Amino acid sequence: MKEKKLMYRIGGQIRHVQLYPIYYLFNRSLGMCMYKAGSGIDDEDLLVITCCLDVPQQKNCAYIDVNNCGEDIIKWLERNGLGKATGRKVHSGYAIYPEFMFDENMLLGYTNEFYTQYLKWQDELGEEQEFLIRSCEICNKEFPLIVSREAAAMYREYQKGAPYLIQDIFPELSNGERGLLARGQCICKNCFEEMFGLFPD
């Protein structure tokens, strides 16, 4: 599919723009940028139209940053055949962000190394699974964990203070993996063993 010729106000002027898929390492979710056609991704007027939220989303979906881009961008995306709003909205801070499902054929027309990597990550997920990416507070290494959406929802409640036990939320994970997720710990197995000796089985 060829790239569509899109016109959008960017840098204060109506310009021919191109889309540029990205991903967010925080949860390996999809993002989207726009830039002036012919200027390249490093252009100073680059516009990121999505935001990264700690909530699950389906393949090729992203939350649109209407806080900075305005509500009309949803109509613009749909009018140009770039996808459809899912009807789902997430409240974060002082704003409500709508979820948008980008058309897969359109995305393939804008394929780059970021979207290719995003698709590889999506292929790793089973039905009703998502990524939890956590960093060790000692070595700062990131660890991607694949968990069920149900467990991830419980974990978000746990982070807010719900009285769950981490082993009850993630019975399928190893103790080392749970150590990355436990409140007040966030240490990987290797760092734990270097500091305290062998990690308990």
Plain-language structure description:
This protein has two domains: 6-123, no CATH class; 129-196, no CATH class. It has eight helices and ten strands. The protein has helices spanning 66-69, 72-79, 104-109, 113-124, 149-159, 166-169, 175-181, 189-196, and strands at residues 6-10, 13-24, 29-36, 47-48, 50-51, 61-64, 83-92, 95-102, 129-135, 142-148. It starts with 5 loop residues before the first strand and ends in a 5-residue tail after the last helix.
Low-confidence stretches: none
Measured distance between first and last alpha carbons: 52 Å
Radius of gyration: 20 Å
Would you count the extended β strands for me? 10
Number of helices, where a helix is a run of at least 4 consecutive DSSP H or I residues: 8
Question: How does the helix and strand content classify structurally?
Answer: alpha+beta
Number of domains: 2
Mean pLDDT: 90
SSE series = EEEEEEHHEEHHEEHHHH
Sheet having the most strands:
4 strands, antiparallel
